[in-house]
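Agenda item 2: glutamine complex prediction
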Amino acid sequence: MVKTIKNISENTFQALSSLSKTDIIDLLHSKGILGDDIRLTNLFKSDENNFSIHQLNEKDINFLIKVFSDELIIPNFHSFSEKITEITKLVESNCNGSVANYIPELKSVDPKHFAVSICTIDGQCYNFGDSETPFCVQSTCKPINYCIALESLGEAKVHQFIGKEPSGQRFNEVALNKDGLPHNPLINSGAMMCCALIKPEDTIAERFDYVKKYWSQLTLNRGPGFDQATYESEKLTAHRNYALAHLMQEIQAFPKNTSIENTMDLYIRNCSLTLTTSNLSLAAATLANGGINPFSQEKIFSNETIKDCLTIMSFCGMYDFSGEFAFKVGIPAKSGVSGAIMLVIPNVMGICVWSPNLDHYGNSVRGVEFATRLTETFNFHNFDSLVGNSSKIDPRRHFSNANFDI
Ligand code: GLN
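Presented output:
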């Protein structure tokens, strides 16, 4: 077996040796490995005219061999991308819904914006449309706030203060569960509670910096930005969120000594961070990859944190449409009122769709249609069987030679 793999590697290496740098880059592109991939900086920086694969170091060569021996999670990335583009174009014609209008910064966003970005656990990327246009993350920051709280306090402590049930109500409903706690970490009350749990002993500047550092790690320092105007507007109009915070304070739901002012400030700051779909798909890919950034290989969140977050995302991430979404689409997701939806296919890929027109639940119309068509086409629904006949496409690599001996 070892000999066979070695032969494949040698053949791949021989084949690569005869190619020019441009040919290799074109081939990499068809596999979803893009020109800004930090794993191949040496190749991208090398001199086009005097290029030889022998100039690359062992790590670079091993990575190229892995790519061209079809060992990435989506081996036929080209066909997969074509199918995604087909879906995306169908979805683009849907102009239903309307933009969020509770603050001027969201109301004035062009509803025609549309972007889809995908990043696999092996760092294969796909981008469509306005994938480099920044937008406010809004509630798509909530899974990350939750992960950060879990990392610092652990699941048992965090869930002393937050439930694990869908609320069945609007995301900003002034309502708590029967224990007087937020229903879950992905609605406003629960997200505020997560913010209350993040480094409460520190100053607001330090706490916000702490959250931003996580986003930087998730996005390879490509984000996040910050929308000051959105922050100011949100602060002036967040009456319902303040009402929720005061209600929780009154019944002592928060940990002792919680400052509502600071908690609300951190919550609003986090919602006002800006990212692009290409960056948010990197964060989603890290959630898909057991908390490890596919490019830097940095372990950002523990396996337990990821399991808890994806579980809650699978039944609480789409407001009071979450049950329907879990049934029909069947993947962990989180949407925000800016029209972003983060989707996670565990152990395969992260996706971000952005299109500002919302339905009456507050979910992006095109985002929901994209997700629906995605799992109608590919067998990505949580409960799609990987064996037996299916009309759906399975694009992922299977480890047929996996060795389960213990
Ligand atoms: N800033 C918004 C709020 O707190 C975020 C809500 C959302 O995206 N659903 O109401």
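Discussion summary: The radius of gyration is 22 Å.
Owner for follow-up: CH.
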